[in-house]
Amino acid sequence: MDYKPVGVGKTVRNARRGLPEAGYWKKFQSPVLVKEYGMVTSLEFSPIKPHDLLVTAAMRLQVYNGRTSQLKKAITRFHGQARSGSYRSDGKLIVAGDDTNIVQVFDGASRSVLRTFKGHQDPVHVTRFLPNNVHVMSGSDDKTVQIWDIPSQKAVNVFSEHTDYVRSGCVFAGNANVVATGSYDHTVRIWDVRANRCVTTIATDEPVEDVMVLPGGSVAAAAAGPNVHMFDLLMGGRVLTTLGNHEKTVTSLCMDSAGGRLIAGSLDHHVKIYNVQSFKMMYSMAYPAPVLSVALSADDTRLAVGMASGVFSLRRRAVSAKEQALAAPQRARLGTHAHFTRGAAYKGGDDDLRIEQRRKRSLADYDQFLRKFEHSRALDAVLANNRTGLTVVSLLQELVHRDGLAGALAGRDELGLDTIVRFVVKFIDHPRYTSVLIKVAETLLDIYGDLLHQSGRIAELLVRLRAKVRTELRLQQDLTMVLGSMDMLMAACKVSHAAAVPAADAAATEKPSIQA
C-alpha cells in the first residue's frame, strides 16, 4: 500500500463581522414555519448554490428550494422512519438511513435509488459521505459503525467497539481515513479506516447526542446531556472546556462557514451560539418547541431549526448591498474590452442563463439496423467492416438477449455463412468470447447441420474448428493436472511444517536441562 501523507487541515479563522454579535444574529428575521409529517430529526443545506434545504421527517426526505423556500421535491422510498439525510460534497447525491436497517443512496436530481446497503441489524441513525465521495459511513442501534464502498455496494470496515446505540457521527474535512462517532455508551470514538481500529476513545458523563469536528481537525465538540464538551484531539481527547448554558439535553450542533461560531440546539426550546475561541455564549434564540436539529447554510444567510412538534423554522438574514459586493467577484461590464477577453474558462455568473448544446451521437450502421429490429442485416454490417472482435461479440450477446440470434443466422447462403464461421474459428479459444461463440456454433449446427456437407468450404472450416476445440480441451486437461500436482505439493508442505513446529518447541524446552 502506498504511503499517504498526513493531510494538513485549515486553521480556525476568526469571523470578522462589521456588526456587533447580537446585531448580526438579530438580522435572522421573518421566520417561516413549515409543518412536516413528523418530528424533524435532521436538517442539512446543500453545499452547492443555491443551497437547497434537505429535511428529514417521518418516512420521507423533502428538499426546499434555496431561493424561494418552496417544496422542490420529496423522496419517499422508505418503509420506516427516515434518518439523517445528508448531501455529498458536490450536492449530486443524498444518503439516508431508516428504521428498516438499510442505508440508501439517492440521485439528488431524479430521486431514484442508486445504492442500497444492507448489513445493519437495527435502525440506522447516522449516515455521512466521506470526503473521497466514494465511501459512506453509517451508525446504527446495533452498536456498529460501518464504512460502505459505493461502487461495489459492500462494507469495507465494520467497527463494533461501542456498547450502546450509535446516534451521532461526523467526518473529518479533507481526510477520508478518519471518522468520529458518538454513542449512548457515554463515549466518543475516533476510527482509523486504514488501520480498521479505534485510535481514540473519549469518555463523557451522559449519552452523546451529537458530535462534530471543528475546521482543522484538532478540536471536537460533543453534545452530552445539557452540556457541550470541547476536546483537544491532538492531546488524546483532553477536555478543553464544557459549555453548560442549556437546561435540557443538547440534541444538535453545527458551525458557521468561517468556523468561528458553534450553534447548539436543545430540548429547552433554545438555540445558542458560542464563540469557539473564547468559549463564551454570544447569542440565544427561543423557539416554541423542543429543538431536535439545526443547520446553517454555507453562505451564512439562512438558519433552519427542526422541532419535536413536526415544524421547522427557516430564518433568513438580510444581506446588505455592500456585503454582496464584497462577496461577489468583480464582473466586467457589458461592451467593455474586459468583457470580450474573459477567456474560454469563464463559467458565467449564478444568475446567467446557460444554454446547453448537446451534440447528437451518430449511431453506427449496425446500431441503426438493431434499432429497426433488422437483426440479420445488423450482423452483416458488424462483420463487413473489419471491426474488433469485442464489437462483434457484443452484438452477438445483444442478439442472444433479444432472442434474435437464430433469426439473424437463418436464411444464409454459403458466402454469408463463411464470414460467420471464420470469425467463430478465429476467436473460439478467446477466454472472454468463448461462452458467446459456443452458443453461436451450437445455433449454426442446429440450423444448417444437415446441409453443411454440401459446401466444401464450410466443411473445411468446421474441421479447423473441431481441431481448435480439441487442442483447447487438451490444454485445459493439462492445466487441471498441473493444478492437482500443485495442490499435492502444498498439502505436503503444510504437513511437514506442522510436524517441524512441535519438534522445534521440544528442542527449546530441553536445552536448559542440558546446560544444567
Describe the overall structure.
The protein has helices at residues 21-26, 321-327, 337-340, 365-371, 375-384, 389-401, 405-409, 414-427, 434-448, 456-515; strands at residues 28-35, 40-45, 53-57, 60-64, 71-75, 82-87, 93-98, 102-107, 113-118, 124-129, 135-140, 145-149, 154-159, 166-172, 175-183, 187-192, 197-203, 208-213, 219-224, 227-232, 238-243, 250-255, 261-266, 270-275, 280-286, 291-296, 302-307, 311-317. With 516 residues, the chain is α+β, with helices and mostly antiparallel strands. Helix 4 (365-371) runs antiparallel to helix 5 (375-384) and helix 5 runs antiparallel to helix 6 (389-401). The longest helix is centred in the C-terminal third of the chain and has 60 residues, at 456-515.
What's the structural blueprint in terms of helices and strands?
Layout: H1 21-26, E1 28-35, E2 40-45, E3 53-57, E4 60-64, E5 71-75, E6 82-87, E7 93-98, E8 102-107, E9 113-118, E10 124-129, E11 135-140, E12 145-149, E13 154-159, E14 166-172, E15 175-183, E16 187-192, E17 197-203, E18 208-213, E19 219-224, E20 227-232, E21 238-243, E22 250-255, E23 261-266, E24 270-275, E25 280-286, E26 291-296, E27 302-307, E28 311-317, H2 321-327, H3 337-340, H4 365-371, H5 375-384, H6 389-401, H7 405-409, H8 414-427, H9 434-448, H10 456-515
Helix pairs in contact: 4-5, 5-6, 8-10
Number of strands: 28
Average pLDDT score: 85
Strand order of the largest sheet: 1-28-27-26
- Helix proportion range: 25-40%
How many angstroms separate the termini?
A: 49 Å
Calculate Rg over CA atoms.
Answer: 33 Å
Strand proportion, as a percent range, falls in: 25-35%
